[in-house]
Amino acid sequence: MSHAEPPRSDAELAEETERIVAFWTELSLPGLFDVHTHFMPKNVMDKVWNYFDSAGPLTGSVWPISYRFAEDRRLQVIRGFGVRHFTSMIYPHKPSMAAWLNSWGADFAARTPDCLQTATFYPENGATEYVEQALTNGARIFKSHIQVGNYAPNDPLLDGVWGALSDAQVPVVIHCGSGPAPGTHTGPEPIAALLQRFPQLPLIIAHMGMPEYVDFLDLADRYENVRLDTTMSFTDFSEAGAPFPRHELPRLLDLQNRILFGSDYPNIPYPYLHALQAVSRLDLGDDWVRAVCWENGAALFG
Description:
This protein is α/β, with parallel strands linked by helices.
């Protein structure tokens, strides 16, 4: 399948929807809680898709977008899957972008009540003020993309941001692992330094910290407010290049209450169902799958 091929057909979606609903129904869940989905302003999403289409340098390979639909259709599809709560992961790659994205995120959440109001930030003058404003306006979750933003998490311009988020106990989904390609500021060391300074900071390590899984599990052991999301982890796509070490599986059981399901919908090169199957096939038990796919998100976000 190349990026030039059309997105999933109605027939494929109908069959997939039936199988996803069966997945969570058999677990006696009310649905799914997905902490890592992307809804963005159309011009931003178009640029993201163009980047994937060109096999951008961070991906290095063809990356078909499985759910390349208009926004209203994407919402219809994910709701059909039974995803009861999701996010609009937005992130800037340059200054003077985050506050505008936060305004869009607030508007999107206002018209999309099943979406957690999502906000973001960038190391720049005024970042503390617009983050505090976003919190006042009801932001429930933030996104930090160290790799795309190409910034140091310990940049002094972010000190007030981390302080405000730690005080408010509003989680930050942070892409800080070095997958799919290392960035100037990715890896566990900068995050370890950040947590030494803000030990109560509620971080959700995106993609299980891929490929530095073990280091980020160590940080979760050390800091009670560090969680991880499963986004793209354990799938055939990721296992081919950055396999999760099987001897670490018992640690996932130990951290059962701090692992959250994430999908990266719609920007995934495989069906949504496969992300759920990838979590399930770890054979950590139904209680673990229930915690990851629903209970932990529901508990964290009330």
